[in-house]
Amino acid sequence: MHRPKDPKDPALDLVRDHTVYACVMGSRAFGLATDDSDTDRRGVFLAPTPLFWRFEKPPTHVEGPADEQFSWELERFCELALRANPNVLECLHSPLVEHVTDTGRELLALRDAFLSRQAHDTFARYALGQHKKLEADVRLHGAPRWKHAMHLLRLLTSCRDLLRTGGLTIDVGDQREPLLAVKRGEVAWPEIESWMERLAEETEAAATRSPLPAEPDRQRVADFLFRARRASAAAAA
C-alpha cells in the first residue's frame, strides 16, 4: 500500500490534480452518522497515460492528503468493481458526491455495468470473515465490537436488497435506529446472530431469482478505460 508521508510526495499530486470522482463514505453515506462520526473520503484518480510508459508505474492507490482519505487509480478501481468488491461498489453509489469530472460522470453512468450476481459471493465471503472476527471478540471479551456488528448487519441487508432489486442502495433508511441500537450495545449478541442468520437466508433466496446478470459487463468497462487513457494521452501530446 502506498502511504505518502511527505506532503510533497508526487503521488499526492495525482489525487490533487487528477481526481475524477470523490465522495464521502462510511457512516455519513450510510445514514448512520452520529456527532462523533469521522468523515471518510474516497476517490478515483486518472493517472496521466504517459506515466505508464516509464519503468516505474504510478501507484494503484494513494492515502491522503487529508486524514481518512483514500483514492484508487481508475483502472484498479474498475478491476475491483468488476470483482464486486463491496467497498468499491458502495463508493460508486454514495449519495454524498464532492467532486466529479466528465470522466467521473462516465464512470457513474457505468454503475449498472459492474453489478452482477457475483456480488452474492463477494459480499458473503466478506461477511463471513467479519462474522468470524466478531465471534472471536465474543470468546475473548464476552461481547463483539458493537460498531462492527452494526456495519455487518448493514452490509448483509444491502446485499440482500441488491440481489432482490438489482439496484444498490447504501443509505439504511428506516433501519437507522435499530442499527444504532446495535452500535450502542443495546442488542444482545444472540439476537444479533439470529438477525444475521435471517439476513443470510434471505440473501440466499434472493440470489436464486435475482434480476442481476450472472456476470458484469466487462466490455463496456474496457471501452470506457480505453477512451479515458486515449484522451489522457492526447491531452499530454
Give me some keywords for this one.
single chain, 237 residues, alpha+beta, Beta Polymerase, domain 2, 2 domains, five-stranded mixed sheet, globular
Summarize the structure.
The protein has helices at residues 10-18, 27-30, 74-82, 86-92, 102-109, 111-114, 118-141, 146-165, 176-183, 189-208, 218-236, and strands spanning 19-25, 40-45, 61-63, 69-73, 97-100. It has 237 residues and is α+β, with helices and mostly antiparallel strands.
CATH T-level topology of the largest domain: Beta Polymerase, domain 2
Query: With helices defined by DSSP (H or I, 4 residues minimum), what is the helix count?
Result: 11
The computed structural class is: alpha+beta
CATH architecture of the largest domain: 2-Layer Sandwich
Instruction: Please give the domain count.
Output: 2
Strand content: 5-15%
Helix share bin? 55-70%
What are the secondary-structure elements, in order, as H or E? Answer: HEHEEEHHEHHHHHHH
Which outline best applies? globular
| Widest β-sheet, arrangement of strands | 3-4-2-1-5
Uncertain segments: none
Q: Which CATH C-level class of the largest domain is it?
A: Alpha Beta
Global mean pLDDT: 94
| Number of strand segments | 5
Backbone CA Rg: 19 Å
Distance between the amino and carboxyl termini = 31 Å
Characterize the largest beta sheet: strand count, sense, and whether it forms a barrel.
5 strands, mixed
Write the layout of secondary structure elements.
Layout: H1 10-18, E1 19-25, H2 27-30, E2 40-45, E3 61-63, E4 69-73, H3 74-82, H4 86-92, E5 97-100, H5 102-109, H6 111-114, H7 118-141, H8 146-165, H9 176-183, H10 189-208, H11 218-236
Parallel strand pairs: 2-4
Antiparallel strand pairs: 1-2, 1-5, 3-4
